[in-house]
Amino acid sequence: VQRIKTATSHLEILQIQEGADDGVLARAWKRILLTLHPDKLQSCTPQEREAAAEALHLVHKAKEEFRETSQASGAVDVPQQLLAAGKPVCTQCQPGQRRYECSWLIPDVVDKARPIEKYEVYGPRVFSHT
C-alpha cells in the first residue's frame, strides 16, 4: 500500500515497463487487485482497509492512464481504412427500418494480424440530409 501511495507514475504503480502490452497490464492489474481486494483484508484494521481502498483507487487510475497513453502513442492497432466499392444500396425501404448495404474493396495484401471481418453497422434512427 505504501509503495503504491508513494509511486510517481502509473508504470511505477503497476510495476510494468514502458511499452508493455495489454496482456502485461492485465496481469499486473489483476495481481494487485487480488492483493488489495476488500475480502482479503477482513483481518486488517479499519485504517488499513481504508488505506488499501485508496491504493486500489490509485491502481484503477493508473490502469486508465496506461490505456490513454498507449492509445495516444499509437501503440494500439488501428484497423486498415478500406475504400468503398460504390454507393450504399437501400435493401429495406420501410420508414424507421431502412437498411443499407455497403461494400468495400478488399486490398490485394491483407495483414493477418488485422483481418477484415464482416460487420453489420447500426446507425442512428434519424439521419440528417443537410
UniProtKB/TrEMBL annotation:
Record-given protein name: J domain-containing protein
Protein source organism: Polarella glacialis (Dinoflagellate)
CDD domains in the record: DnaJ (cd06257)
Domain J intervals: 9-81
SMART domains (UniProt xref): DnaJ
Organism superkingdom: Eukaryota
Coiled coil stretches, renumbered: none
